[in-house]
Amino acid sequence: MTKQSGMLIDEAMEPILISAPFGNYIQPEGSTPTVGTFTAMARGWRVWRILRTLRYSISLDAWTNRIGLRNPGMPWYARRVAAGKKRADHAVVSIHGFDRPQWSELLALTAEVEPLAVELNMSCPNVGEIGLPEGLFEEAVATGVPVIVKVPPIRFEAMSEKAIEAGVWGFHAVNTLPVRGGGMSGAPLHPLALRCVADLRRMIGDHGQKIVGGGGIIRNHHIDAFVDAGADYVALGTKTMDPRLLFTDGPVRGLIEHAHRVVHPR
């Protein structure tokens, strides 16, 4: 990542992000959307997978799903941007490759659409074992697009060390927690996400990477907790699973305004 690209994202990024895939559908004022996660080829049956696997637990105050990165594919998104039907300059574009050639293809297409940043989704629990191709972070940084690595809430240390060494712009902590029903989000994820943010802050030290903290943010004090743990930005996921947001940003307006008051990137 160049110094100039890092300065641009620092100036343009809102204090609060909307996590993928929710940023595809809602983009409330005062937030930065994350769109995707896009793969190299279309992965259909999205609605069926949502209806089939998305479940809420009242006792845990948690959601689980096995949706598995269902999306129309990065080539589709790149064509939409080229045609002026989508814009990427205000968004973080999330991608996931199933092998090294796919990662390279995705990185090239992402650089073409010139997003605010690219998020490497390295931790979706619903697509099987995720490997780390040798030199992937270096290749991503070489595109000149600021790179965010989305890490899991557990076993993230080795991957994160390599990302820091490669000079990525920052991290998104965290993705959903792998459980028997798929990936879990919501209240149980919150303490794990806070610990991950704190651990990443110690690992980063003086290297300068930023941290986007997210996981179980429902109320203002959850944002405060991420800031105290060392996050530079925060991200909403579970809270955006509200159909009212298709018509009004009321359900998240208070959180957005609070983030603008208390989140101050280092």
What does this structure look like?
By secondary structure, the protein is α/β, with parallel strands linked by helices. It is 36% helix and 20% strand. The protein contains 9 helices and 12 strands. It has an 8-stranded parallel barrel with strand order 1-2-5-6-7-8-11-12, surrounded by 6 helices. The protein has a 4-stranded antiparallel β-sheet with strand order 3-4-10-9. The protein is globular. The mean pLDDT is 93.
Number of helices: 9
Sheet with the most strands, sense and barrel status: 8 strands, parallel, barrel
How many strand segments? Answer: 12
Shape: globular
| End-to-end separation | 18 Å
Order of helices and strands: HEEHEEHEHEHEHEEEHEHEH
Estimate what percentage of residues fall within beta strands: 15-25%
Task: Spell out the blueprint of helices and strands.
Layout: H1 3-12, E1 16-18, E2 31-38, H2 46-53, E3 55-57, E4 62-65, H3 74-82, E5 92-95, H4 100-113, E6 117-121, H5 136-142, E7 147-151, H6 157-166, E8 170-173, E9 177-179, E10 182-186, H7 189-204, E11 210-214, H8 220-229, E12 233-236, H9 250-262
Helix pairs in contact: 3-4, 7-8, 8-9
Key terms:
about 20% strand, 9 helices, four-stranded antiparallel sheet, alpha/beta, about 270 residues, eight-stranded parallel beta barrel
Put the structure in a nutshell.
With 266 residues, the chain is of the alpha/beta class.
